[in-house]
């Protein structure tokens, strides 16, 4: 009996580990994105810092609304919804890159 209960936690633990890697990777990519956005959108250094700011301010801005959503949907559906929103933000980079609109990039990052 003991072996089956520890085995049941393996898949969820692996999923959480992969999600932490994905979130960490996205955070790391933001710092490498700054010079390219600065060139593509002709940004000043102060504007380029907004890339990092938009990424980290999302944690503060979205904390309370996300808590409400998690109470309504539960953790599994809430995580799926969060990943879907993150994917939509990433997909927003496609039209932003075509139009080189800095505001669209910031919205995608947020």
Instruction: Please give the alpha-carbon distance between the first and last residues.
Output: 45 Å
Element string (H = helix, E = strand)? HHHHHH
Helix content: over 70%
Q: How would you describe the shape?
A: elongated
Proportion of strand residues: under 5%
The count of β-strands is 0
Low-pLDDT regions? none
Brief account:
This protein is mostly helical and 110 residues long. Helices cover 90% and strands 0% of the residues. The chain is elongated and about 50 Å long.
Draw up the topology in text:
Blueprint lengths: L1 H7 L1 H31 L4 H29 L1 H17 L1 H7 L2 H8 L1
Characterise the protein shown here:
The protein has 110 residues and is mainly alpha-helical. Helix 3 (45-73) runs parallel beside helix 6. The protein is elongated, with a radius of gyration of 17 Å. It is built from six helices and no strands. The protein has one domain (2-109).
What characteristics describe this protein?
110 residues; mainly alpha
């Amino acid at each position: 009996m003991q072996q089956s209960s520890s085995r049941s936690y393996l898949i969820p633990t692996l999923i959480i580990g992969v999600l932490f890697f994905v979130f960490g990777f996205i955070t790391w990519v933001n710092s490498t994105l700054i010079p390219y956005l600065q060139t593509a959108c002709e940004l000043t250094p102060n504007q380029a810092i907004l890339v990092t700011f938009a990424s980290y301010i999302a944690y503060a801005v979205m904390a309370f609304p996300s808590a409400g959503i998690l109470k309504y949907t539960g953790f599994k559906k809430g995580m799926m919804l969060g990943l879907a929103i993150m994917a939509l933000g990433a997909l927003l980079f496609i039209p932003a890159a075509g139009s080189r609109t800095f505001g669209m990039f910031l919205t995608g990052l947020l």
